[in-house]
Amino acid sequence: MLFGARYGALEEARVLLLGVGGVGSMALDCLYRSGVRRITIVDYDTYDVTNLNRQLWSEQHVGESKVEALQQHYEGIEALHVKVDEAWVKAFDFTPYDVVLDAIDDTKAKLALAQKCYAKLISATGSARKTDPTQVRVDSIWRTLGDPFAAKIRRELKRRRFDRNYRCVYSAENTVVKEKGSFMAVTGAFGLAMCAECVKKLMERAR
Q: Could you give the 3-state DSSP secondary structure of residue 195?
């Protein structure tokens, strides 16, 4: 009813989601409930008690592989239990996917992703140490102002002489907390914004 004939673009799309933690698990849930079914999730971690405050389904699967546990809740998704690092990004074939969602923390892997598949990339920056979900934004990597992690990514991309554009989910909130704690209102907002941006990208392809 909402997307009309363009809804088919969601059903037919292939989405690659890298990282299914606090941001990625919410993005996955949103995508699946929006009609995207051909999703491949990639993560190497297992659920820990420290994940319970922000990661969907974590309380039911402590000690288990995240991607294998999530397959039990989202029928039909594909799972790769591998570590997403720079070497993996450089070796992996991203061609079959319409959109690549980056919800990982590894800086070198993020830089490699930008260089390899910027045209289909939506990347999340830092959501830790934030408490205000109303300051979550989506914009070009070059306009991610107020986010120290995004600033680091921009500096490194410039050093590599990368001048292309891709979309980022970031927070403009200034943090005063030093401890690396996370608040689900913010990590969840990141994941939902990432899902919305992915749906928008797929809808644009359907025009």
A: helix
- Cβ-in-10-Å burial (0-12, 13-18, 19+) of 66 comes to buried
13-24 residue pLDDT tens: 999 999 999 999
Strands 99-102 and 78-80: unpaired
Q: Write the class of the CATH domain 4-205.
A: alpha beta
Spans in the chain with pLDDT lower than 50: none
Q: CA–CA distance from 158 to each of 21, 29, 110, 113, 123 (Å)?
A: 28, 34, 14, 15, 17
List 122's β-bridge partners, or say none: 101, 167
Look at residue 204 in the predicted model and tell me its pLDDT: 87
How many other C-beta atoms lie within 10 A of the C-beta of residue 196? 17
